[in-house]
Amino acid sequence: MPTTHDSGSTGTGALLRLRNLLDLLDQGAPAEAFQDGELPDAEAGSQAAADAAVIADATRVALRIRRTLSQHRRREAELAALFDTAGDLARLREPDAVLKAIVHRAKLLLGTDVTYLSLNDEEAGDTYMRVTDGSVSAAFQRVRLGMGEGLGGLVAKTSRPYSTGDYRDDQRFRHTTTIDGAVAEEGLRAILGVPLRLGTRVIGVLYAADRTARTFTPDEVALLSSLADHAAIAIDGARLLDETRTALVDLNAASRTIEAHSEAMRRAEDAHDRLTDLVLRGGDATDVATAIGTVLQGGTLVHDAEGAELARAGTDPRPPSAEAVAASRAGGRAVFVHGTWVCAVLAGQELLGSIALTGRADLDDADRRLFERASLVTALLLLLRRSVAETEDRIRGELLGDLLTRAADPAGLSARARRLGMDLGRPHAVFVLHTGAVPRPRLLAAAARIAQARKGLAGLHHEDVVLVCPAEDPAPGPGPGPGPGPGPGPEPGPAAASLANELRQALAGPVTVGAAGPVTGPAEFTDAYAEARRCRTALRALGREGTGAALRDLGFLGVLLGDQTDLGGYVRQTLGPVLAYDAKRGTDLVHTLRAYFDTGASQSRAAEALHVHVNTVVQRLDRIGSLLGRDWQRPERALELQLALRIHQVNRHDGPGPGDFAA
Questions:
Q1: Residue 284's Cα: distance from chain center in Å?
Q2: Do 180 and 152 touch, CB atoms closer than 8 A?
Q3: Which residues, listed in sequence order, are joined to residue 335 by a DSSP beta bridge?
Q4: Mean pLDDT, the chain, as a whole number?
Q5: Which residue from 238, 256, 472, 622 lies 20 to 30 Å from 115 (Cα-Cα)?
Q6: Residues near 92 by Cβ (< 8 Å), separated by ≥ 6?
Q7: With 0-12 CB in 10 A as exposed, 13-18 as middle and 19+ as buried, what is 512?
Q8: How far apart (Å, rounded) are the C-alpha atoms in residues 399 and 420?
Q9: Which residue has the higher pLDDT, 372 or 507?
Q10: Are 661 and 572 in contact (CB under 8 A)?
């Protein structure tokens, strides 16, 4: 949002420019159009200078919004193309129509100049062009490549994706006069090719190419690989249909075969319709597990790449072994290991997870392909989920950075937080984390999981891992005995100690946590971050790494490090139990404690100063020890007690008032 200036209201010219920026956003204008407006002359007066600043800020914000909208439009176009492809596979039955749709979708999805598909000729031992989109050269459309020749021949031979930023200068491929001539006539420079695989067998290659040199990204390779998998499935489905039609020629000999194929096709169509519907309505891994378990009548289990369970359905699904997942990934097909069917979930060469099926030891080819098709749909859903998560993490990270630097107005920050499910009007605590025992990305990932569970924010700020969470009232535990204790309260010190312990268990290493708060309102987060950072530094300097605390938990050192010196709070925290005892019973243990320290910690001299028997002093000191704890006479604790006594004595001489330190 534009920064508010103190020079007066915004001028008419600035308002017109702001309206023009909104019109440009609405029209989807190019980025250059946002810089075409004339700025007011900064030397024309303070109002013009303020208007210039407003326009500059608004232009930056408008460009940032335009970039975000462009990214969203691109993702929407990619998803629409994938969904349209799934719909084509559900409707079309002719191989040529399906392959043309695949190639056309690839061109729309990657935005390249030309896309094409070649199929292997096993008898001739080469590969030939089958479908093109965007091609203008007749020679290119008829070209044949020997196995291992050119980029496509290498893909067909090795069953691996290959790409080149400039084909004519790339010496990794075996160049031939025929291939180079066809590529030159088409004017292609950058080419990406991915294999069409049926199990371990490569049946062809799907290409995307541009007439200008450029580099293909890993995301483009993964997307084109997904389309290639769909194309291979379409070819395989057409093959099954051709086999069924051929079997009809001899009804007497092939009736059982026809019936089996018909049932397989019906189940395949039913399963494909179910899985396609999941994609179109934004289903998740649980929906896939339920659908494939229902169709194949077995227990299903879905894991991510780290082995964490994502979904399960049916009875007794057993997790797959790492060896089974590796075997499926290497072979490109489902494998049967120790009574469980396992299929790796892949996006190109990237392992996204696995899907397991139990209770079915007799999967035929059709059911096996259904199971493998479920892994493709699972891969697509996981890719979509990852894209959404990355976008949300970026938005949360930007909000955290703005909160900690006052980069936006409070009203705008509160509105952005509400869209993420956060209420900045509630008390929040700020934690700064540090560990030298584990890599910082692992610490950041653990903090992000905690933030998600507690409806907070986590991210990097000035190289610090920062966590912001609501400071909630203590939740009562179940009472004496085993079980969870009280929950984190408004004071950040206990919450920091609990957080340090939680992170130590999760990461198997010590984590130091400095805390500050609670704060309410966006304007207070910057100071809270600075205080939490000082506390984290103090904990490490004091040799208390692996613990968590707030500045107020560090005694007088915390008071000195704090921005606002709270001497009253220091006295209450240090002498509170003794002050409360005196106030309730009318005693003066504070005076006895002061006399004891003033006489050099001598019981006899303190008795003389107080004009009482030494046994009375001993009894009073025992009572003080029961109130303050056994360690009250340790040197560092004794120093804090003496400082608190001095401050309390000065306040009593000054008389009660706003700074009164009474309990």
A1: 17
A2: no
A3: 342
A4: 76
A5: 238
A6: 98, 101, 234
A7: buried
A8: 10
A9: 507
A10: yes
Between CA 397 and CA 390 the distance in angstroms is 10
More confident: 620 or 365: 620
Where are the alpha helices (H) located in 281-349, listed in sequence order?
285-296, 322-331
Q: Which helix (H) or strand (E) holds 82?
A: helix 46-91
Backbone angles phi, psi at 191, to 5 degrees: -135, 135
The tokens describing 602, both together, are 């001598």
pLDDT of the residue at 558:
57
Contacts of 200 (CB under 8 A, 6+ apart): 159, 331, 332, 333
List residues bridging with 195 in a β-sheet.
Answer: 205
The structure tokens 């395989």 sit at 236
Nearest to 648, CA basis, from 586, 573, 581:
573
Give 54's contacts (C-beta < 8 A, 6+ positions apart): 2, 3, 5, 10, 14, 18
In sequence order, which residues have a C-beta less than 8 Å from that of residue 305 and are 6 or more positions away?
351, 352, 353
CA distance 375 to 392: 25
Regarding beta strands 548-550 and 512-519, do their DSSP bridges make them parallel or antiparallel, or are they unpaired? parallel
- Comparing CA positions, the residue from 131, 229, 124, 210 lying closest to residue 166 is 210
Report percent pLDDT > 90 for the chain: 8
pTM as predicted: 0.38
Give 524-583 as a DSSP string.
GHHHHHHHHHHHHHHHHHTT-TT-EEEGGGGTHHHHHHSSS--HHHHHHHHHHHHHHHHH
Side chain identity at residue 510, one-letter code = P
